[in-house]
Fold this protein.
Amino acid sequence: MALILICVTIDEPLSRQFHPERCGSKYLTQQFLLRNVSHHGDGIMTFLGRKFGAEQWMNPAVRGFVKLDCSGLDSGASIERVLDCFPVGPCLSPKESPWIQFDFGQKLRVRPSAYALIHSVECNDRFLRNWVFEGSEDGDHWTALKDHEKDTTLREKGQSHTWPLFEVQEFYQKFRVRMTGMDSSGEHGLMRCPGLEMYGLLVGTQ
């Protein structure tokens, strides 16, 4: 597999709503490069899981760096494990265009250059085929960063794949994966949550 290197530099202002100089602690700028489209790791989620590279890895949702939300879960189900090293993704409650959201909170922003999805290690069906990867600053207004239609890339449990994102100029606080059509099992509305890794520029405060 050929390597794909995507370098980004910061020479323009952040999104208007984000003012890191007001956060009152050490300023952070960290760049993450996509190195292999068929293998995820060493990206932003991994960095946060290692507490900015200073400690042993722990789920970044458990550390509190990423807040997860979704369109609906059955009682007793949890979505935090989608960010485990070997992600376990629950099925969302049936709903039109179900989604899972990853929120970096008030102190961190990401300008993505690529993103990876990782299918649940416990499920060998319900692979995403039609979905959109979106970014938002406020959770109300969303920008489509990449649309997928009849994408058959994911085919095995635990499989990951990384897609480059071109011409993304904005920083975002929130990202989501939203299902827009049938999955590999012919279901539309019953989404198996994928894990996520991201690459690009991370800015904010530690």
